[in-house]
Amino acid sequence: MGGSAGAKRGCEIVSPEQVLGRLTDIESRAAPDKFFLRGRRALLETGPRVAVVGSRRASSSGLELAKRITEFLVDREVTVVSGLALGVDTVAHETTIASQGNTIAVLGTGLDRYAVSRNQALQDHIGERHLLVSQFPLGKPSHRSFFPRRNKTMALLTDATIIVEAGENSGTRHQGWEAIKLGRPVLFPIRFLESTRVAWPAKMAEYGAFGFDARTLGLVLDSLPYRSAEPLPF
Fold this sequence. Notes:
Low-confidence stretches: 1-8
Distance between the termini: 20 Å
Helix content: 25-40%
Number of strands: 10
Radius of gyration: 16 Å
Shape: globular
Structural class: alpha/beta
C-alpha cells in the first residue's frame, strides 16, 4: 500500500484511510487529515490494538496493575498503545518492550520533539523498533491543546481503551469519551470503576463502559473486533 515518505528522519506521511481502511462517517469526523509515522507502519494495519492509559501520578498499586494488565495483553499478542506520558503510559510502553511485545506511542508533538524529556530514550527506541504516530508535523512543540486531540486520535487508532487509574480531572477521561463516541469499548479495572473517589467512570458506565478483572479480560479480548486496512470480502 502506497504512502508518501517524508525524507526528514525517516518520517512517513499517510492518510488515516491508508492505515485503517475505509472509515465510517463518525470516524472520518474524528480523524486528522494525516498521520506522521516513524517505525513499523504494519502495527497500524493489523490488530488487535488496545490503549492502556491512566494518570501521570498513578499510585504504586495502579502502576503495578498497569504492568500486570500490559503483560496479559502482550501474552495474547495485543499491540499495546499509549501516549508516552509519565506514570501509566510509561509503564505500559516499558512493560511491553520488556515482554517482547509490540507498542505504539501516539504523540502530542511532532515526531522530532519530546514532550517528556525523561522519556527521550524510550521515544527513540519506540521509533526505531516499534511505532511512533503523530498528527502534528515535524518541529511542532508541545501545547496543552494538543493532548485532547492526541487522545481522540488514540481512541480512533485502537480497538479498545483500558483506563487503569486516573483522577477526577485527569485528561485521560477525554480519551474515554472519544472512544465511546466512536463505538469502541472502554474498560476499567473493577476496583477503579467501583471507587467512590472518582465520579466520571460510573458516568461512562451509563454509556456502555464496563469493568473487568483477571477472569473476564480474556473473554473481552477474545470477542474484540479490530481495525485492519485490508478490505472486507463483503
